[in-house]
Amino acid sequence: MISRIQLNLLAGPTLPVPVPAAVIQAVRSVQVTVAAGQRSGFQVVLATSRNSPLTTTYLPAGLLDPGIRVVIVVTVNGLPNVLMDGVITRQEAGFSNDLGQSAITLTGEDLTVLMDLEKRQGVPFPPLPASGQVAWLLRNYLLYGVIPVVIPELFADVPVPTDRIQSQDGTDFEFIQKLAKDNGHVFYLDPGPVPGTSRAYWGPQIRAGVPQPALSVDSDAATNVESLSFAVDGLSGKQVVVRVLEPTSKISVDVPLPSVSLLAPPLALRPAPRLKTEPLAGAAKENPVAALARGLAKVSESADAVTGSGQLNVLRYGRVLASRALVGVRGAGLAYDGLYYVKSVTHNLKVGEYTQSFSLARDGLLSNTPRVPV
Fold it and tell me: Does CATH place domain 118-203 in 3.40.50?
């Protein structure tokens, strides 16, 4: 059972350092949202007043201005967890005549916001595959402790300079996201494990590894979640097909594309129904390698038809539930028990309270594993 939770904040223009004690003492609430497929964000609410050091000293000095880097660390029983390494994008100050109602609200996003500030057009790249182009761009952010982890794409397409020159159109973040989508990969920043560092992951979505302790519902004394619900959406999944022209008869045949990722194996025995069929538009005009990569990317986008959502108390669960990782579910019945991928987690911290809202996903029903870790 958790007996102690401690919050630490670091801030600074480039290199974050521990904030003054007055700032920590003024924290009213902290919210951090980490989700697969989108940028992570945070919001910190600080209590203030007309004579508070925040109002008289730290705000005028620019300690909490937009553009300031913020690292949020929560320590659970001596084990630090870096929840966020990001940048303040908005500052709001609200003052009230009622005692204790004045507050400063800081809103921000993870360090990918720095990659999305400057648009570039027509900037040429060396003749590199998509993974090489991503590594080339990420080198600009090593100063912020961003460590690239780039997994080569399944079907590499290296442009020949005499045929075409690959150029960048948009911000670094937009271009990296486009390369990820075209190759069935994902791109995100994972803060930590040491405050001031982040892992920039570009590669296939990994749904393998050691699962986190199970989320138990309707299990008497073993229950560790406050709520948990599931849904199966037959319209969310799509069967992607490629239209192939048979050379002799000139008859076109639709060939369904399977999911071939070894890093995202099925999490269920019975795939959920896919009621929609979608042809891969424009495949005939593309390079076959590029068309195949784009087709597999669309298959991976629509694989999750079973979703779950709920809320837990970290004190009861016994640890911090991590996003973009596997977790087991117990007590939900034969159809819904088993392993799930944690798509998003929202951390909500207040004085004496630490709760998490979460969303889960997988490809079907019926567990394909006999038991999940407790």
Answer: no
